[in-house]
Write a structure and sequence with these properties.
single chain, 2 domains, 16 helices
Length: 382
């Protein structure tokens, strides 16, 4: 593993210490044994509020949990994804038994079937009952467990909304099952597939074959991404794949980027305010969580209004800002700009002056509004 990759992994693990990590022993009826769990709760998790969080179920938790937990905490800190509950399932010497499948149809049997039921009928209900969870679940696996998480995709109502499949040791019939299921699936589903050139030849061949099949699908409900890495070993590839997977799954959650601003928002022929509303409604629809509109995203829409001189949209932006940040001067600034540019300077002046008791936000200060009010007063002699 490259030194830079080791450093990044250490940084992510150290960063995750700020989150709340718990270790639990879970008595499973399905497995007829106790299984060790690692659970990372978000930094902001409190038992006294009603905020809900997506769930990550991480197989091979004995070595994969820390990498996932660190990445999730890091990306959530920078608001590139929502905070989430990460659950690692330790498998150790149980891995072969947990992933057992039939040679006749490639589906779980015996101890593999028991592990399948443990995840779906015991573990996830327990997490949902114990913690405040959103109905958005991500499954992550590596080689044998990367094959196993696909069994939950085959259900009539898939258990997970996102699958991170890293260097999978695919059962033979999965090359037929997975593309056929993805072809028919009727709900939005994220599917991330990755491998490395240093995987065993059989893994590489099967993964490339699966990629070819999925790439040919026309189902708009499938949100698919694929990476083929050259340098990492089979055991190091998760540290390369996980950031790519999170960026793929949560691209719609991310703040407005420079690229999005330049290539999409500035070129809109319709309302940029409506675009902002739709962006955040999509976050609610896809991830089943409510995300407050970021001040930086308000600033991006405001900048587009100024750039395109489409000042009529400021009125709607002011209403939205008033709903999101009612105790700040944000809505007053936007409403003042609306009246300034639509021929009502006196009204704009009063709006600016009336914001004196509200809080500053996002670089918009009391001084700025008073300056704008004074300029209007001077220009028009009010």
């Amino acid at each position: 593993m490259k030194k830079s990759t080791i450093f990044l992994l250490i940084l992510l693990i150290i960063n995750s210490i700020n989150a709340q990590v718990k270790y639990e022993s879970f008595e499973s009826t399905k497995l007829k044994e106790t299984r060790e769990l690692k659970i990372q709760l978000p930094r902001s998790y409190s038992y006294n509020d009603d905020k809900s969080y997506p769930i990550f179920i991480v197989l091979d938790g004995d070595y994969l949990f820390e990498a996932v937990a660190g990445n999730v905490d890091y990306y959530a800190y920078w608001e590139e994804m929502p905070e989430a509950i990460v659950v690692g399932v330790n498998q150790l010497d149980k891995r072969y038994d947990d992933c057992m499948y039939s040679e006749q149809n490639s589906l779980p049997i015996d101890t593999g079937a028991a592990f399948y039921e443990f995840i779906g009928l015991e573990l996830i209900p327990y997490i949902e009952k114990t913690y405040r969870t959103a109905n958005f679940k991500v499954a992550i696996g590596h080689d044998e467990t990367a094959n196993f998480i696909n069994y939950f995709l085959l259900k009539p109502q898939p258990l997970f909304q996102a699958y991170v499949v890293i260097s999978p040791e695919l059962a033979p019939d999965m090359l037929n099952y997975i593309p056929q299921r993805l072809k028919e699936i009727e709900s939005k589903t994220f599917y991330y597939l990755a491998h490395t050139a240093k995987d065993r030849p059989a893994v590489t061949v099967m993964t490339k074959a699966l990629h070819k099949e999925i790439s040919a699908l026309k189902n708009e409900n499938i949100l698919y991404s694929y990476n083929s890495f050259d340098n990492p070993s089979h055991y190091a590839v998760p540290t390369y794949a996980l950031p790519k997977a999170l960026e793929h799954i949560f691209y719609a959650y991310q703040p407005i980027s420079k690229k999005e601003y330049l290539e999409v928002i500035l070129k809109l022929e319709s309302s940029p305010v409506a675009y902002l509303q739709e962006k955040y409604q999509n976050i609610t629809d896809v991830y089943r969580i409510e995300k407050p509109i970021l001040v930086n995203d308000f600033n991006a829409i405001s900048a587009a209004i100024e750039k395109n001189q489409s000042f009529e949209y400021y009125e709607d932006l002011a209403k939205m800002a008033g709903q999101e940040y009612p105790k700040t001067i944000l809505s007053h600034y936007y409403l003042g700009r609306f009246y300034e540019e639509t021929g009502k300077p006196k009204k704009a002046m009063h709006i600016y002056q009336s914001a004196y008791s509200l809080s500053e936000i996002g670089g918009i200060t009391q001084e700025l509004l008073l300056e704008k009010a004074d300029l209007i007063k001077t220009d028009f002699g009010y």
